[in-house]
Amino acid sequence: MLQKWITSIGLDIGTSTTKLIVSKLLIANQQNQFTLPGCQIIDRRVTYASSIYTTPMLNDVEIDVQRLTVLLEQEYKNAGISLDQVEAGAVIITGETARKQNAESIIHYLAEHAGDFVVATAGADLEGILAAKGSGAIERSAETNAVIANIDVGGGTANIALCQNGKVIETFTLHVGGRLIRLNSDGFVTYVSPYLTEFLKNNSLILREGEKAAFEKLSSICQLLAEETVNYVKALNQNSSLLVSPHTRSSIHPETIMVSGGVGAMMEKQKPKTVKEVAIHGDVGPLLAYHFQSIEVSQAAETTRATVIGAGMQNTEVSGSTVYIGSKRLPLKNIPIIEIPVQQEEKWNPQLFQERARAACMQASTIFSAEDPPVAIALSHFPYCSYKMLQELAKIISDEFIACFKGAECLVVLCEQDIAKALGQALAKQRKELEIICLDQIDFTHGDYIDLGLPVAGEAISVSVKTLAFSS
């Protein structure tokens, strides 16, 4: 059995804190006479965890890139690793920090300076997924067959993921966090997030910057925020003024609710009794944590570092049982994913699939830049595939791809089933001028982009599916 350890990092730049982990992932190519060859990550170990830093800011809207870079370089030295040793992982800007005016340029800068193959990611949905991985919620859902909700509450947002059978089935985000209301040491309000305005008004509460905060008022606000969050998670409410983006709440009711993040970490502490005790960190985090605890949700096994552990240890996958790599371009970063259902009808219909493929490729050609490869075609709803269907599928994909991306020389195709080698060979025969990369067992449900790494065990390559959706 061929095995290889790779180095992965996770860097989480949040509204209030920044932290980094280094982990080792053991990838094994497992094969015998009874099974298809398959690569899996069989061991994950955190080898270094940084201190938790206050996120360096120049002012309310600008992250201090220079101080962040110095911090990162020092942490690499502390961990005893160099840039060329890093092969996987994620840089993720989370919470309100992702909405700062220079977040996009920073995350691309960090991606270039954090290692040879580090994923640059942002976006509330992915943050919730990574936190659910790092907190243990996804693993617990696989072990218990129950629906587990993980609420990752940080400084600016609460990112929620519902998990079932080891997968995330629903995500959404609320404007709930410890630093949405800030206080000085004398108990005066220094900041009230505009995201709370409608919520406070609807509950007949007014909190203004400059006023001396009353403990009872702060307690009422934090109680309402915790209850609003949990009631929406339980599907008791179908809407909330605190939603970061529009969301239609399903009727799925979680059996267990876990809380991670910085606020989750404070749930085990005693209730603050005075405004001074509330304002120990300059915000209402301790009081918000108490009110989450009081409505009988449980503290996650991993809290403060849940997102960064999810980013550094859990975000990397390997490419599946069979692959077809007809290109020397690896590694590749930030390839947009376009999903095309193979079969939405009762049986395979080449004409209808071609219409879907043409529409998806034409739309993508007007949206994405002329990089090569321009997109990765992700084939979903893939039934049993006969030889004849495979050939028809390959011809339609290559024809429509070439028609819409005339200058492209590389075609990337993603499948959920073990069919990549056969489909890759069929595509290569259709278009000898095209470089073909065909991968299988890729879960692209929650991804907008994909990174493809270098081979890590035999033919298999490391893969990270992510989002680069920046908030305005």
Q: How would you briefly describe this protein structure?
A:
The chain has 472 residues and is an alpha/beta fold. 31% of the residues lie in helices and 28% in strands.
Content-based structural category: alpha/beta
Nearest-integer average pLDDT: 82
| Strand content range | 25-35%
Note the main sheet.
8 strands, mixed
Please count the beta strands (DSSP E, at least 2 residues each).
Answer: 21
Q: Could you list the spans in which at least 5 consecutive residues all have pLDDT below 50?
A: 33-37
Provide the descriptors you would attach to this structure in a database record:
28% strand, eight-stranded mixed sheet, 472 residues, six-stranded mixed sheet, 31% helix, single chain, alpha/beta, 13 helices
